[in-house]
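Appendix B, record 7
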Amino acid sequence: MASFSDPTGHRPSDGCEYEGCASDADNWGWNAINYLLNNTDFSDPTDNPIGQIALDNFFFILPLALEDGASVEEAVMAAFTAAIKQANDYGNAVELLKDRRMFGGGLEAGVMGGLEDRIGGTASLIYTSSSGIGTNLVRTGQMSGTDYQFNTGHGFYRPHNSNGTTTDLRPTTLTPEFIEDAIAQDLTAFRIAGGHIPTASRGSTTPLKRSVTVENLTIEYTAVMKPNGTISIGTYYGLP
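Structure tokens (predicted):
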């Protein structure tokens, strides 16, 4: 039944049957997060305050954990272990949660938004640098603590043709910013779900190829992980 190594304390009798939750040895961490998201009243600090504090911790821990090669389950365990210690040190979990909301801008608006960034919700890619122009334009942006490099010129500003069919993105109503934000969201969700992005090496590296739908248009893209942790999107284009 339940895995008693799960620091959330979840048991099937607690309503934690969600896709196995703690009893699912391979996915209990992400299942526990989903359970909290679907069964917690974030407007009420007395509703599972340890769980809400742990979610707060999880949002900050996860990007670092993924960069270090740790699993979602390890990030969840660290988040809950820290939450229990933080509540004990503070003396009262509910008061700690209230103060976090007061000084941190609100759990639901701020921290909940953090998780949505990581699962393809209301993420926003923030551009930090660019070089080149036109078909040579390369831009770097950040989302949820991860750097993304886009060959915007090759993807958006270059003509594309697939088997005689034009898949150029310039005639569409989409902007490169909107497309690249959607790609970053998709990759964030992909990694949280346990997906692996190939690491670029001196030899030949087969990139990850995925597609995302943006305003009813399917856009395919390729991605590799650079040794410094930056995710490089080599190109993107519409599918016929």
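Remarks on this record: The beta strands are 126-131, 138-143, 146-150, 161-162, 165-166, 208-214, 217-225, 231-238. The longest helix spans residues 49-67.
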